[in-house]
Give the backbone structure.
Amino acid sequence: MLDQLKMPARNYLNNGHGLASWLLTKDHKRIAIMYLISISVMFFLGGLFAVGIRLELATPAGDFVQAGTYNKFFTAHGVIMVFFFLIPSIPAVLGNFLIPPMIGAKDLAFPRINLISLYIYWIGGVFTLYAMLSGGVDTGWTFYTPYSATGSNSNVVPVALGIFIAGFSSILTGLNFIVTIHRMRAPGMTWFRLPLFVWAHYATSLVQVLGTPVIAITIVMLAVERGLGFGIFDPSRGGDPVLFQHLFWFYSHPAVYIMILPALGVQSELISTFSRKTIFGYSFVAFSSVAIAVFGFIVWAHHMFVSGISTYAAMVFSFLSFSVAIPSALKVFNWAATLYKGAISFETPMLYAYGFMGLFTIGGLTGLFLATLGMDIHLHDTYFVVAHFHYIMVGGAIMGYLGGLHFWWPKITGRMYSEFFSRIAAILVFVGFNLTFFPQFVVGYLGMPRRYHSYPDEMQVLNVLSSAGASVLGLGYLLPAIYLVWSLKKGEVAGPNPWGASGLEWQTQSPPLTENFVEVPIVDREPYEYEHVAAKEKHLV
Amino acid sequence: MSGHVSPISLYITIFMALMVLTVATVGAAFVDLGQFNFLVAMIIAGFKATLVIWYFMHVKYASKLTKLTVATGIFFLAILLGLFLVDYGSKAFTQMPPFLS
Amino acid sequence: MSNVAAHADDRGHAHAHHPALQHHFDTMAQQKEAAVVGMWVFLLTEILFFGGLFAAYMVYRIWYFDAFAEASRSLSLFWGGLNTAVLIGSSLTMAMAVRCAQTNKRTATVNWLILTMILGAVFLGVKVIEYADKFEHHHVPGYNFQWAAAHEAPAAGEHAVAASEGAAAAEGHRELSLTPAQLQLTTQIYFSLYFTMTGLHALHMIIGIGIMLVITRMAYKGKFDQEYYTPVEMAGLYWHFVDIVWIFLFPLLYLVERHV
């Protein structure tokens, strides 16, 4: 049915061979591939620790590992997943690859800084992994003082330093994107012709640049307190432990927006492509990304309602936390309005998008429960919180990442993967995810605390469901690792635009040239104008 | 295209102003203004910083984007300090914190 | 002296442009503007980086004002004031260096950069003197910290408060509402912040001097002209920022309460 498509003779993958041509590259696309491999390794490692957690929690007694070891498991899981997987994932892989072609540029503004950000990520990752595997850290990824400063006997400073180093990778990526989006757009590519993916990454970059330095300085203060005996957070030296929490969460709350905003951008691209309609309310969706980024900076103390902040502050932060839900909800409504009377279909990326809409909504709504002061007294530090953030981070961010990876895979590699296996994997991920995390809402509400390796007997059924779900989820994640790699050599050649999608990146060959464009494109179209794009190379059988 | 070249006399003037303001801030510290000592010191420091940013760092002659970037940094620093005060300012400062009594 | 060169790129187009133009940019102006905005975005991160320390300082200064006032008085106003003048002077010399690069004066650029580095080194030398003094007076937290008030340590018992009050009045100090034990804890917080803030600032200065060494060498080799002096300007922006941090550190650390 299709013409015999051939891989383009000259593309960024065969432009230079050998390790040096990759390790010393300035090509944003090659850097994106190297990030892809790195974060996949980290995801697997973080997942291993999750397996350890779920194995322990399959039985009520703490019989798999000792409590101290269990503490190290969930700390490792959190540190790796947050700092070394989720935060870089979409920006460093999809953002790095796609932002220049999407705006009509040949590369990011600072290609060498892009490469340095990758090296810094590697150094931070190796540092942290070494510290975690040679003894580990038992403080939780939140490192609360005074335990982390003076109580714990574990490798706090090396892990903290590893996170500090990795933070620079995040900052440099954000810096690069901000300057690129401001100053490297092709002629005619005005702000309101940008794909929403780009708006989302712009907002994410603002958060990366403004938030990460605060956790960096917090880590410095923790390190000098622990290493040099300074007094900053430890009460026995005159310090205030709540100050640490304020400083930590000033970054770590916006950090969750670093993790979700890019996925929200991917979602807009998927919904519009696979309903063949322009996004409903484009400018509202664009502004909502920036609003989420800005509002995200003024809500952090909702993590501290029971820590000893004043009642007045608690009320202020609770109210502000409700307001940040508004731009998020706006996106969900606009996606629904886009789907309405659209020509919707069910390719794999769209399956992830459908899943994202439901799971992100549940995650977001449960966030409102937690933002309600009275409810939070009951729910704080229970599995309800754990379920809430996994719905957003896994049901939202990771599904957004996988949806985007599947959507742009043909552009990145020039090949299509097996639609059959990819749909099975998407369904396994959705089913496995809900089986893992929905019971956690229930046990959390029933009072099961987080970060404990044992629990009352009557909660076992729900925990076993959760652990069973985790194996289904794990299988769902394993499948793409197999069929995506398989497609590199055996997949059908994709051609420039297998989905019939709009966007400058689809007007180039797959895989793209090193310089992306033969000639600088001149943009005269609004985004998502589906009547202009021929669907002649739609891949579906 | 080269950027705006400032005359040497401007730099000297700004330098002298900064030195005068430094003397002023030290002098003001020796006058008992109660609560206002801190405010005066911060206003003078803020003014000095503005002179450095505007003239030495050439922001006066820079693009709107550059100016917006500077303003954004100051804005978010204000959020950091201001919202910290929402908590710490609504707790009692008149007594020592309990862990120090 | 113009550095325009003509060459063909890998697509066979011959075009003339400054050798420093990177090919993903269209013009030198775009490249320079990107660099300036990029450097300012980086300085934003530095504002928030130091900002966290300022936030901690703010909290503890309000809580432990008396301790901060006492501890601040123990700092040398002479050295602090001198350092402030030195650093502002180095900002002047740095601005002159950028100006000479802008106007294509190679030797003058190098000289002003060297002068800036010398002034930076003077600043660091003074800091060494101040730090050494802290070690001597047991004002280093975690190492040998012992806060002895300016007057003698009070005798035990309830006469202690009265004795120190009397001594305080005699020396012109304000009556303090903190016990010596509380002072020990709270002044330690002050000095922890003092060392962290000035130490981080000094580290930034050392890095700045390092950057300037590289830039000076580039200037010496004639790499800059009126079309391309961006690295000098970037170094200048960084150095001025470090100056601004000190402009705030000086009153916050040295001038908490000098009028008693």
